Amino acid sequence: MAKKQKPKAKGAAKKVKAKPKPAAKATRKPPAKPAKPRRRRSKPSRKRTKVGFIGLGLMGEPMASTLLKAGFPLQIWNRTPEKTRALVEEGAVFAPTPAAAARGTDVVIVMVADDAALDTVLFGEEGLSRGLRRGAVLVNSSTTSPGIAFRAATALRSLGVRYLEAPVMRSVQAAREGGLQILVGGSADDLAKARSVLETMGAEIHHVGDIGRAATMKLACNLLVACLTQAFAESFVLARKSGIPFETMMDVLHAGPLNCQVLRDAEHTVVNPGGRANYFLRHMLKDLNLALELAQQLDVPVPVTATVRQLLSAADNLGRGNDDFGAILEVMAKWAGVPMRG
Q1: 185: β partners
Q2: CA distance 235 to 241
Q3: DSSP output for 280-328
Q4: Which of 45, 205, 75, 211 is nearest to 140 (CA)?
Q5: 97-110 pLDDT, tens digit each
Q6: Whole-model pTM?
Q7: Most buried of the four, 89, 212, 297, 306, by CB within 10 Å?
Q8: Complete domains list, the chain, with CATH
Q9: Mind listing the pLDDT tens digit for each residue in 139-171?
């Protein structure tokens, strides 16, 4: 009887089936495709975010210029068209009305003098409300009342437009350098949509709460600045009248706990009287009026603020309204009968 053959191992079967690899052809390999250059990520916000800017005054013009230099497409409007010329030469698009400045934009910044001006540019005959698209963000950087913030936010939301209040602190020079301090009131989602624009203009952004909070915070800050400046003016004329040299006074103040930016700004007014304004006296007077109205609504006593408001009003009536509000030092020096320097 024939013996049964053992089945071949699987490995052996594979070896039998395996074919020898053909020798590599002595041909040149095609050159490898060059690696695609790494796509450099542009700043999407600056490429896609189209900005409108309304109000090219003392602070508005350098703020708009900062956005333009950062690459944001910019449409601008100002009540006095001549003030748009320099920015148009730099690449901004001139708009004949606020509504035209808003059309097609993602974010619109408003920097105007007061509540009445804000109401006009928002809801006037050719106001922003007629040009803003649904989903756009209106950013009010003006120093205005909490009351108009609530009214504007409510009206614009009914049109599908987002609203942020974002008043600014610091000087004209800070605006030129993108170094403003920005106080924001509104929703976190709305802030996220406008953040890239705000971060271009400001070194610090403080989200202080809902609509109305930023306006209130700005008035509280300006109240403090005005009162500190008036206190310095009184300190200044007292020391001057007694014969203490200005340089000696400043050496003492700078070395002690009273050294602060308000002190340095007041010092600048003494050293450079009549220099370019950082904040108009008439605007500070307006802010104190708003602060006093708010204090009355909240039943808060602010006696020092009320007195400073009267002194600023006197300076305004003396023709100093378009000067820097530090001009109160010159008014106090005149009343005290002492020279600013010497």
Answers
A1: 165, 209
A2: 10
A3: BHHHHHHHHHHHHHHHHHHT---HHHHHHHHHHHHHIIIIITTSBGGGH
A4: 211
A5: 999 999 999 999 99
A6: 0.83
A7: 212
A8: 44-210 (3.40.50.720), 217-336 (1.10.1040.10)
A9: 999 999 999 999 999 999 999 999 999 999 999
